[in-house]
């Protein structure tokens, strides 16, 4: 199979829509990461996602819609918080876990009676969804468990020859996956921190929400080992960095730093001190370090503050050893 690169124009959007209608897989841009899209009503196409990504079929997929007007076709018993949150954060990096409509394919939800839904905030994909006039499922467009793609080139690096097309929408603006909020119980829960800060959610629903990092709920990205580059990842507290530098292997190792430290004898890559900017470049930096053939990536852990929670989550999973 030859993977074609499509541009963000009317002709190529029509091509992408036709491919999806024909049961093919198309990588699409979102504000978070690139997704591997399939028609959410096509079992064969959905199964291709699991095959191409080498993703366990028990691991649910996130449904992408163009409008909240389509929500009743996919979910039932929709709580009032949904419309309040949607008013503020859709389109955007927020996914809501809801009770699924009986007609939703079990292949999407991994056999669960719940479904995760979002409306992506990317003009190219919103246009595609309008043309297609269907829901699509779209996990990250990479091999399962590896670093998520934030550019069309990243997708090509992982899936060239394995999918029909990549719709190039430029670099992803947010760079981290969506925040997943469980609204199937009386009290909302954060199941996956992401591109939407928890503090913003709490302001809108006027409720305190605690992240549930140990939740056994079946959702995307809840495995302990995830988002992993080829290089091994080793996180360190700021207080440990100076000692680390003295003992750090030189040739095939790199240190991702927040602190301003200059050392001529080791490889240093300076990371943004702002949490949002850090999230924008985190995955692309891990991929860059792989491209440079580093075998070990040492990371200075960011502050223990709420705005850094998603970054801590990704570093923890990127560094988890089975």
TrEMBL record:
<protein>
    <recommendedName>
        <fullName>Threonylcarbamoyl-AMP synthase</fullName>
        <ecNumber>2.7.7.87</ecNumber>
    </recommendedName>
</protein>
<dbReference type="GO" id="GO:0061710">
    <property type="term" value="F:L-threonylcarbamoyladenylate synthase"/>
</dbReference>
<feature type="binding site">
    <location>
        <position position="148"/>
    </location>
    <ligand>
        <name>ATP</name>
    </ligand>
</feature>
<feature type="binding site">
    <location>
        <position position="140"/>
    </location>
    <ligand>
        <name>ATP</name>
    </ligand>
</feature>
<dbReference type="Pfam" id="PF03481">
    <property type="entry name" value="Sua5_C"/>
</dbReference>
<dbReference type="GO" id="GO:0005524">
    <property type="term" value="F:ATP binding"/>
</dbReference>
<comment type="function">
    <text>Required for the formation of a threonylcarbamoyl group on adenosine at position 37 (t(6)A37) in tRNAs that read codons beginning with adenine.</text>
</comment>
<dbReference type="GO" id="GO:0005737">
    <property type="term" value="C:cytoplasm"/>
</dbReference>
<dbReference type="InterPro" id="IPR005145">
    <property type="entry name" value="Sua5_C"/>
</dbReference>
<dbReference type="GO" id="GO:0006450">
    <property type="term" value="P:regulation of translational fidelity"/>
</dbReference>
<feature type="binding site">
    <location>
        <position position="32"/>
    </location>
    <ligand>
        <name>L-threonine</name>
    </ligand>
</feature>
<dbReference type="InterPro" id="IPR006070">
    <property type="entry name" value="Sua5-like_dom"/>
</dbReference>
<dbReference type="InterPro" id="IPR050156">
    <property type="entry name" value="TC-AMP_synthase_SUA5"/>
</dbReference>
<keyword id="KW-0067">ATP-binding</keyword>
<comment type="similarity">
    <text>Belongs to the SUA5 family.</text>
</comment>
<keyword id="KW-0819">tRNA processing</keyword>
<feature type="binding site">
    <location>
        <position position="178"/>
    </location>
    <ligand>
        <name>L-threonine</name>
    </ligand>
</feature>
<keyword id="KW-0548">Nucleotidyltransferase</keyword>
<keyword id="KW-0963">Cytoplasm</keyword>
<feature type="domain" description="YrdC-like">
    <location>
        <begin position="10"/>
        <end position="196"/>
    </location>
</feature>
<dbReference type="GO" id="GO:0008033">
    <property type="term" value="P:tRNA processing"/>
</dbReference>
<dbReference type="InterPro" id="IPR017945">
    <property type="entry name" value="DHBP_synth_RibB-like_a/b_dom"/>
</dbReference>
<feature type="binding site">
    <location>
        <position position="138"/>
    </location>
    <ligand>
        <name>L-threonine</name>
    </ligand>
</feature>
<dbReference type="GO" id="GO:0003725">
    <property type="term" value="F:double-stranded RNA binding"/>
</dbReference>
<dbReference type="Pfam" id="PF01300">
    <property type="entry name" value="Sua5_yciO_yrdC"/>
</dbReference>
<feature type="binding site">
    <location>
        <position position="192"/>
    </location>
    <ligand>
        <name>ATP</name>
    </ligand>
</feature>
<feature type="binding site">
    <location>
        <position position="55"/>
    </location>
    <ligand>
        <name>ATP</name>
    </ligand>
</feature>
<feature type="binding site">
    <location>
        <position position="64"/>
    </location>
    <ligand>
        <name>L-threonine</name>
    </ligand>
</feature>
<dbReference type="GO" id="GO:0000049">
    <property type="term" value="F:tRNA binding"/>
</dbReference>
<dbReference type="InterPro" id="IPR038385">
    <property type="entry name" value="Sua5/YwlC_C"/>
</dbReference>
<dbReference type="InterPro" id="IPR010923">
    <property type="entry name" value="T(6)A37_SUA5"/>
</dbReference>
<keyword id="KW-0808">Transferase</keyword>
<feature type="binding site">
    <location>
        <position position="227"/>
    </location>
    <ligand>
        <name>ATP</name>
    </ligand>
</feature>
<keyword id="KW-0547">Nucleotide-binding</keyword>
<feature type="binding site">
    <location>
        <position position="118"/>
    </location>
    <ligand>
        <name>ATP</name>
    </ligand>
</feature>
